[in-house]
Every structure is written in C-alpha cells, then in structure tokens.
C-alpha cells in the first residue's frame, strides 16, 4: 500500500512538472512589431521570445482585430508600429494571463494570421496579414508550420528557405515611385503601338522586400534594397527601348508572396519574367554573377499541381484552357507550353549570362538550375539573376554604387533585348522589324499565322492553328510547340488542325538533314521547304517542322 502511495506521488509530481513545462513553453513575450504596406495587402509582424498559443478574433468595434497570446506579456520597450496601408494603429493590454493586442484596421479589411518558426536571425513570429475587403489571399502565404517567405539562393540552393537575415543598420537609400516609365500596364491589356504592333512585356521582380530583407553584407547593405534599385533601373532602361514595356512586381519596400510574383507576370501577359537577387555565402571570397532557370524536377512538380488544380487549368497565358480537355490532352498541351517556356528560358538565361560576363566574372560560367518558386510559371519564360555576392566585401561596395547598378541593369537588358531580336514574338514591334529586315511581313494574329512556320532555333515557338483555335478572343501572347498529337488537338478544337505540319523534331548531335528526312519518311526537299532552309546544314538544338507529306 505504501509502495502504491509513493508511485502515485511520483506520478503527480511528473504530471505537475509536465504541466509547468507546457505553460513555460507557451509563455512567450511580445518583443517588437513591424508593419509593411503593399499594393495588395498589409503585413504586421510581431517578434516573440518563443513559441506561443494565440487566438485571433474580431473586436467589438468595427475595424478592430484582437490577438490574445496565452500566458504572455508585452515587454517594457515594446513600441507599436505606425499606421500603414490597411493597418491604422494598435493598443496593448493584459487580459488575465494573456497579452492582448488590438489592431485598428480598415473596417473592410480581411485578416489572416499564422505563426512562423525561427529562421536566420529571426526568432518566433506572429504574422497578421490584412487584405482589402472581399479579396482573398492573392499569393501562397506560408501556413502556420512553414517558413519559406522568400527565395534564399545563398543558403542551400532552393527558395524554400526562410527569411535570411534581420534588418541592417545601414540601408541603401531607395527612391520613391518614379515617373510613368516605371508604371505597369493594366493587367490583361497588351501595350500597343500606334502602328498596331504590340510591345513585348518584361516583368521584373525585385527579390525579397518588407519583412524579408534577404541577405546582408558586412557593412549592412540589404539585398531587398539592392534588388529594388536594380529592378527600377532595369525597368527605366526597358521602357526607353522601342517596342518594350516593363512591369514591376513591387515598386516599394513591401513583401510579396513568391507565387504571387509570377502570377503578376502572367496577369500582364508578360513575354518574360526576370527576378533580381544578390547572392550570399558563408565564405566572403565567393564572387561573381549567376543566372538560374527552373530545374526539370521543378517543371514536373509544377505540371502535377496545374493538372490537379481546376482554377489553374482554365488559365494559360496563351489563352488555352485545359479545363475542358480530358486529362491526357491537358497533360500534352501543358507539356508543350512548359517545354516552350523552359527552352526560351534557357536561351534568355544564356544571353544574360554572356552580357553579365562582359561586365565582370560569373560565378560558374554556365546557366544553373534550381526549383525556385518564382521560376515555376508554366507559360512565361523565367530567369533569376544573382547580380553579385553581397557577402563579398568588394562586390558589396560595387552594389552600393549607382553606376555599377546601372551597368548591371544594362547588361541584363542587353541579354533580354538580344533574345527578342533573335526570337521576336508574333505581332510585336520586334517581329515587324524582323519582317522589314527580311523584306517580308509577319503575321500578327492567330488567324493569319503561316501554315508551316519557320524553324524555332532556340525555343518551341511554332504554333498550330489547332491550339490557337482554343484561345481567347485576344491575340495569343505565347505559342505552343506542336507534338505528335494532331488528331487529339483537332478534336479539341473543332477539327481546325494544321494539315501541313505533322510533327516537330529537335536536332540532336550527329544528326543530318538526310537522316531526319528518312526517319520521318519525307523528302529532303519537302523538309527544306517547310523550314525555309537554303542549305543542308542543321543546327544542334534547333526545332524542325516535319511536313505531312
């Protein structure tokens, strides 16, 4: 009996200790708060001393959001952030054993909250996002268990890392919104020239921002400030070019979810997406620029997501809806579009890397691949540019210099413009210029596209009338590479298939024109005519049209 009593006593002690431990874990102090306002939502972040349990509720007064953090208190040096965007003000108090934070917000704001675990120099954080009335979360804000606010190329080569570092003491001054040269065009409306030709649209993404400062140099230079400066400079230079228009994903110090960044590009029917970053490494000797494209693994995983998501299936930039297609045909069409985008991305990245190489050393000397979220758009060619290593003292010094940032933007522009000059999208100013140089004319709409287009040397830019028949009323902004699916595509587009094109063939090492002709059972003459070739030379990597007869 006595032994049983001792056991029960020990059990009670263990239970009490466990209870006290649980209380201690949840008793996290609120140390500080910050607020950022972007064009689509406002974010308020609370720094906590540890993990915490909390509850969010609507206050009694319209336009108030209450956060009760169990077993917690507010530190004596806590200072409420000033009003920004949808966030107006804040009061703090003690409610029983909990800290109560009451945020006064726009009465129409829709609140969303979640916790973030420690990452980099940040500890635990409670995040309150405020969206305009009636608007749902526009991006892929991390759920309570996630930390991947933004890409951090330097950390481990993938952009599912968390915020990289705390705000620095010596930020680079940022300019406010500029004149119309940096303003974006309305979403969904291609910018047109008086001649009737449209401009090519380049979406420029300044990495990080707001709560996410990115990497930090030895003297306190923050990546988010550098990227915004370079992005603005690049936008200005692009908008001074004939036939080009820039769209900035952000034009201020605020955070944008990763997925939302490439969605902005798609909403503006961008012909290209360029994400600007500054690399970092634990070794300060690492140096050089680099350019990244999406890895094949990223392409495969994104395709699976798109085919599973009914909303995504209804919205490819080229105007092709996958929603009304059976699974097999939808997979083929998506694969064609992704193939085009990735091939174009490779070509663009190579051009930009060469241009950066003329400005200074490159980190590896070749285009690199990774599964970055911002590169996952299935229908917009996308690249990520690491301008330099901000953790390298010499390169950090250059990144502080206006002239060097201008040169970086000029180098990126040169690579981008070179791509459009060599592969002009149909209906654009670049296509019209190419036609004038060649003494001919190019089709500017889907209806007038040639039956047997010329070879697309660096990207699958050959379009079939069958796919175009499924597009929206507006001229398509992207063209789908054709595969051996003519019968299925024709069925999906009411029989409007292009009978003159049977297939596409990418030239591999060691192949000859005669060998390709024999492979498909067509004559060399027909093959040359379909591809407008003047000789028998074929180029490795080029895409050749295979005629039906």
Care to describe what's here?
- By secondary structure, the protein is α/β, with parallel strands linked by helices.
- The termini are far apart.
- It has 14 helices and 16 strands.
- About 23% of the residues have low confidence.
- Strand 5 and strand 6 form a beta hairpin.
- Among the domains are: 102 residues, Immunoglobulin-like, CATH 2.60.40; 212 residues, Aminopeptidase (3-Layer(aba) Sandwich), CATH 3.40.630; 42 residues, Roll (Membrane-bound Lytic Murein Transglycosylase D, Chain A).
Short description:
The chain has 549 residues and is of the alpha/beta class.
Fold topology:
Blueprint: H1 2-26, E1 30-37, E2 42-48, E3 54-58, E4 64-69, E5 87-95, E6 98-105, E7 110-116, E8 125-131, H2 153-156, E9 200-206, H3 223-239, E10 244-248, H4 258-267, E11 272-279, E12 290-294, H5 296-308, H6 310-313, H7 327-359, E13 368-370, E14 382-389, H8 393-399, H9 402-422, H10 429-438, H11 465-468, H12 486-492, E15 501-506, H13 513-520, H14 524-530, E16 543-547
Parallel strand pairs: 9-10, 9-11, 11-14, 12-13
Antiparallel strand pairs: 1-2, 2-8, 3-4, 4-6, 5-6, 7-8, 12-14, 15-16
Helix pairs in contact: 3-9, 5-7, 7-9
Main location: periplasm
Subcellular location: Periplasm
Protein name: N-acetylmuramoyl-L-alanine amidase AmiC
């Amino acid at each position: 009996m006595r032994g049983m009593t001792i056991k029960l006593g020990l059990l009670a002690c263990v239970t009490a200790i466990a209870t006290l431990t649980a209380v201690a874990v949840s008793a996290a102090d609120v140390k500080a708060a910050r607020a950022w306002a972007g064009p689509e939502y406002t974010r308020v972040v609370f720094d906590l001393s540890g993990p915490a349990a909390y509850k969010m509720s609507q206050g009694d007064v319209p336009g108030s959001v209450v956060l009760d953090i169990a077993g917690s208190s507010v530190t004596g040096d806590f200072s409420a952030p000033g009003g920004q965007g949808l966030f107006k003000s804040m009061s703090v108090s003690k409610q029983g054993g909990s800290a109560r934070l009451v945020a006064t917000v726009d009465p129409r704001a829709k609140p969303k909250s979640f916790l973030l675990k420690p990452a980099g120099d940040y500890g635990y954080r409670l995040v309150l996002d405020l969206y305009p009335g009636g608007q749902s979360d526009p991006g892929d804000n991390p759920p309570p268990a996630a930390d991947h606010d933004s890409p951090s190329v330097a950390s481990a080569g993938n952009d599912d890392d968390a915020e990289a570092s705390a705000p620095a003491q010596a930020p680079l001054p940022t300019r406010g919104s500029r004149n119309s040269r940096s303003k974006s065009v309305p979403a969904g409306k291609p910018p047109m020239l008086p001649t009737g030709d449209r401009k090519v649209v380049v979406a420029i993404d300044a990495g990080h921002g707001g709560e996410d400062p990115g990497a930090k140099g030895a003297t306190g230079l923050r990546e988010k400030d550098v990227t915004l400066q370079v992005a603005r400079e690049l936008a200005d230079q692009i908008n001074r070019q004939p036939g080009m228009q820039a769209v900035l994903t952000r034009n201020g110090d605020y955070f944008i979810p990763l997925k939302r960044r490439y969605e902005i590009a798609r909403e503006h029917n961008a012909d290209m997406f360029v994400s600007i970053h500054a690399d970092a490494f634990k070794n300060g000797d690492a140096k050089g620029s680099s350019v990244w494209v999406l890895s094949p693994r990223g392409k495969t995983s994104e395709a699976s997501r798109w085919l599973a998501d009914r909303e995504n299936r209804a919205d490819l930039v080229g105007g092709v809806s996958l929603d009304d297609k059976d699974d097999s045909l939808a997979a083929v069409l998506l694969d064609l579009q992704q193939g085009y985008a990735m091939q174009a991305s490779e070509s663009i990245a190579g051009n930009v890397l060469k241009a950066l190489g003329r400005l200074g050393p490159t980190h590896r000397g070749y285009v690199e691949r990774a599964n970055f979220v911002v590169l996952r758009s299935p229908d917009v060619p996308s690249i990520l540019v690491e301008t330099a290593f901000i953790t390298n003292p010499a390169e950090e010094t250059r990144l502080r210099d206006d002239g060097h940032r201008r040169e970086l933007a000029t180098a990126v522009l040169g690579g981008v413009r070179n791509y459009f000059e060599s592969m002009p999208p149909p209906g654009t100013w670049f296509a019209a210029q190419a036609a004038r140089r060649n003494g001919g004319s190019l089709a500017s709409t889907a209806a007038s596209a040639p039956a047997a287009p010329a070879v697309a040397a660096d990207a699958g830019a050959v379009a079939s009338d069958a796919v175009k028949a499924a597009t929206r009323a507006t001229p398509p902004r992207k063209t789908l590479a054709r595969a051996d699916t003519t019968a299925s595509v024709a069925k999906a587009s009411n029989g409007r298939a292009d009978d003159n094109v049977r297939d596409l063939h990418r030239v591999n090492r060691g192949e000859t024109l005669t060998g390709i002709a024999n492979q498909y059972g067509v004559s060399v003459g027909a093959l040359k005519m379909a591809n407008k070739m003047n000789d028998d030379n074929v180029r490795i990597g080029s895409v050749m049209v295979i005629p039906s007869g």
